[in-house]
Fold this sequence. Notes:
Largest sheet: 7 strands, mixed
CATH topology of the largest domain: 2-enoyl-CoA Hydratase, Chain A, domain 1
Oligomer: single chain
Helix content: 40-55%
Mean pLDDT: 93
Number of strands: 16
Structural class: alpha/beta
Amino acid sequence: xxxxxxxxxxxxxxxxxxxxxxxxxxxxxxxxxxxxxxxxxxxxxxxxxxxxxxxxxxxxxxxxxxxxxxxxxxxxxxxxxxxxxxxxxxxxxxxxxxxxxxxxxxxxxxxxxxxxxxxxxxxxxxxxxxxxxxxxxxxxxxxxxxxxxxxxxxxxxxxxxxxxxxxxxxxxxxxxxxxxxxxxxxxxxxxxxxxxxxxxxxxxxxxxxxxxxxxxxxxxxxxxxxxxxxxxxxxxxxxxxxxxxxxxxxxxxxxxxxxxxxxxxxxxxxxxxxxxxxxxxxxxxxxxxxxxxxxxxxxxxxxxxxxxxxxxxxxxxxxxxxxxxxxxxxxxxxxxxxxxxxxxxxxxxxxxxxxxxxxxxxxxxxxxxxxxxxxxxxxxxxxxxxxxxxxxxxxxxxxxxxxxxxxxxxxxxxxxxxxxxxxxxxxxxxxxxxxxxxxxxxxxxxxxxxxxxxxxxxxxxxxxxxxxxxxxxxxxxxxxxxxxxxxxxxxxxxxxxxxxxxxxxxxxxxxxxxxxxxxxxxxxxxxxxxxx
Length: 532
C-alpha cells in the first residue's frame, strides 16, 4: 500500500482561515442555487400547484429509484444574464429501475417553461453528455416552446435539439418523452422524435399549431383536445405510446418503460470501495483564500481516492505537476494535479507520457486544476516551452479515455487547455467555489495593458497620464476578477456545476459510474506529431 501522508493541521490558524474563506464562498453559491430551486417564484409556484401539478424536481424525485442520488448539472445556467438562474430547465443524472439515465425536466413555473438561449445551451450540453456516455434520456416535458422575444437566438441553433434526439436513437441510446402539459410548435418534435412517448390525460397538448394558428392558417375551428390532446394521440394519431391518467401514473409508466429497455452497462460495477483515510470535511481548509499562495494537491487526493492510496508517477521529475494512479469508488483512475501552479517543460513532457500510458491501459483521467499556465521568459522559451507545452496539449486533445476535470484554484492561460478545460471536451467539468479561470490573473492582465499603453505613448512622444492609468488598471482588474469567478463561468455553462469540495469524491464517483456505461477505450496511436 502507498497511502498518502498528510501535513494538514486542522487545529492550526492557516487551516481555519482557509476554511472560513471557503465557507463564505459556499454561502454565496448556495444563495444562487436557491434561486434556481425557487423557479419562477412563490406566485407562479403556487399557481402551478393550484392546477394540481407537480414541480419539476418533484417529478424527478418520483421518477428516480428511492434513496438514490441525483447529480444535477448546470444549476447556475443563465446566472448574470437577463434570464432566471437555472434557465427554466433541470438536467442531471439519476438511476431509474437500476439504469443510469440523463434526465431533463422543464420548469413550467418560469415563463411556462419557455426556452430561452440558455435553456438551449443547457439542453444541448445534456444531450452531449448522454451521447458521450451512452445514457438513456428521459425528458419530462411541459414547455410553451421558444421564448418568442429571443427567437432570433433560439430558432436557428435550436434545430440541433431535434437532430440530437434522432442521433441518440440512431446510436441505440433510448429516448423517452413524458408530456405533462404543453409541447407545441417546434416542441412537438420532442415527443415526435423520441423512441417512447407517455402523455397525461387532459393535460398534454402536443400539436404543431394550436387552435388560434389553425384558425388563421386554414379557417378551421378546433380545440386543444381534438388537435393535440393525450387521448387523441393515444387513440387516433398513435403519437402517444402510453396514456397516463395523472402525473404519478405517467412517472410510474416511465419507470416501467426504462425497466423494459434491457439496458446494460459496458462495464460491471466495481463493487465496494475503501473510504479515504482522512476526513472529507478537511477539504474545506486546503485551498488558500488568496490563490497566489500554493497548496499541495496531494492533500486533496488523500481525501478523495480509495484508501488514500496513490502510486505517484515520476515524483522527482517535473515536481510542479503530480501524476499518479489510484482508485476512486473502485474505478481505476490516473490523476494529474498542479502542485505549484506553473507548468514547465519537464511537467509538460511528464504529463504527455502519463496521458499516453493511461490510454494504453484504458484508464480514465482526472485533472485537478490549480495552474497559472505555462512558464514564460527567455530561458524557458529557449528551452522549448512552446513545443513541450504543445506535447501536453496534443496528448490531451487526442486522448480517448474519459476525462474528468475539477477546477480547485486558478486555471489560467494555456494551462487551462493542457489540464483539459472545457474546450478539450472533458466528459464532466466541475469547479470549487475557490476556482478562477481566465486568460491570465487580473493584476497581470491589467499590468500588460498598462505596459503596452505606456510603450505606445512613448513611441508617439506623448506624455503618459499615470492617474488615468491607475484608474484603467483598477477597472480592468475588477472586470477580469468578476469574469473569472465560478458563478460567472458556470452561468455560461463553461462547467457542469460549482460543487462543495466535500462532495468531490461523491460527484467524481457518480461521473465515473456514468462514463463506464459506455466502453472505455484509450487511443493506441493517432496522437499526431510530437515536436521533439
